[in-house]
Amino acid sequence: MGHKLLSWFILASIFIVAYVDAQWSVTGMTGVTSMHAMMVTPTTIIIIDKAENNPAAVLPDGTTTWAAEYNLVTNKFRPLKLSTNTFCSAGAFFGNGTFLSTAGGEPSKVVTASDGYRGIRYFQPCQDGACQIIETPSLLSSARWYNAMVTTPTGDILNLGGSVQSTGANSANKNNPTFEIHSANGNNKASPIQFLVDTLPYNLYPFVHVIPNGLWQGYYFIFANKASVIYDITKNVAVKALPEAPGGIRSYPCTGVATLLPLDYLDNYNPQFLVCGGQSNFNQFTNPAENTCARTNLGSPNPTWEADDFGGIPRVMPDVVHLADGYNVLFLNGASVGQAGYITGGGTLLASKPALTPVLYSMNKPLGKRWTQLTASTIPRMYHSVASLIPDGSVWVSGSNPNENYNTGGPFPTEFRVEIFTPPYLSGNARPQITAFKNQTSLNVSPIQVAYNEAVPVTYTLTGTPGTITATIAQPGFHTHSQAMSMRLVHLQITNIASSGQNTFTANIYMPPNSFILPPGPHYVFILNNGTPCAKAVWVLIG
Ligand SMILES: [Cu+2]
């Protein structure tokens, strides 16, 4: 009898845990570790590793490199030349669509790579295999390692914090508590920021977001360690400090993850920030990771914290992805024990127990009902892993190299395999297909220029009986070290839906009202049928 009950319990648990309609598949190889990655066109992702001797990433001159462009159509990578060390650096788009990479680490001992701490690199995305990274002789105002970058409402880039040399936890003598703004004409002047002094020693890769609306519109929300502040970058003053967030340490090496949740016109783009995972104790490599989250409403004059769990799975070094429906946020990758950092020379693992099961966060459900565990992967994604939404609504997952160099052995070898994760929302409903956008039928060849508030005519096909049709615009973000820099998703109003032939519809989609809600730059527009995204989003440039 007891046995029977136990087997029923086990069976029931399996049904609760595994979502059968989420899937994983291995599709390609990256050639370099995906330490940093960002969608740069609808078919290409730039991948930046640190200076490393990657045997398969061979340039035409026979040398190896540590950056590549991954092609989502061919599932092949194209090695990209670099000359400075991009170890633990940052990236963002300018409003005009040019990609900027800054900062890095010391000269390499294994390949010819010079000091990258003050590196500034440009990349003009292409889909013809011709574009290259251009490293400039101009330098950052000061050395930065583990800095954060975000596109500003003016189309410039804010570059924030970091340390002046590589380290475990940060310290006063290595701290770089400054920020600088990059504009298209390259203006670099550092300003001090006290918040990055007050948050020592856990302030590396600070989480930073433009506040879209409400009382604090246009200010920045900055979170590090357990502290956060609403900050006026123009005047360089802290406008409001929030109370300490509940739960453990959220910043490197006790690495948690954070995001500004998707924004909706239905609640007037009310900004809500969520931080999850991490570790309660530094240098306790067998300590379980944080199974906690904290959420705050930045639409409030006095934001406070609501504590939640992390979907039942302790997780350090998680990655976060806004799914295209704008209601569900995916958390994946990382480990359930330990902290971020390389396996030591003596073989001590800083993290173990890969957290293979993704969790889905349904942001509008009541507390206690927001989490769903999805189908697990079989590939550990430890330190230096990433994930990104791609234009077909699925999730591109790659990376993992907790070894100081390229290493095919050990418990967690250097991982080049790419996986595509298919979330449950891709099955169950017919998928719209956008056939015309702003009267153009040639889509995703170059970004279609759109303006704030513009009513854009669209045509799409959809078989069967249409369900509820919605629209969103997404910037998938620059992913590194549990950061999703500039990742942003906004619900779009869709009106005047009309049938214009068999299985063909026309409608108007309204772009977001202003650049605080969605900073300028390249983005992807989705149409969804009952929450199931279209076959391919449309690449636009807003601003
Ligand atoms: Cu790193």
From TrEMBL:
CDD domains, per database record: E_set_GO_C
A Pfam short name: Glyoxal_oxid_N
Residue ranges annotated for the Galactose oxidase-like Early set domain, each copy included: 431-541
Signal sequence, renumbered to the chain: 1-22
Keyword Lipid metabolism: no
InterPro entries xrefs: Gal_Oxase/kelch_b-propeller, Gal_Oxidase_central_sf, Glyoxal_oxidase_N, GO-like_E_set, Ig-like_fold, Ig_E-set
All residue ranges annotated as the Glyoxal oxidase N-terminal domain in the record: 64-425
UniProt keywords, alphabetically: Signal
Record flagged with keyword DNA-binding: no
PANTHER family membership: LOW QUALITY PROTEIN: ALDEHYDE OXIDASE GLOX-LIKE (PTHR32208:SF21), SECRETED PROTEIN-RELATED (PTHR32208)
Identification of the protein by name: Galactose oxidase
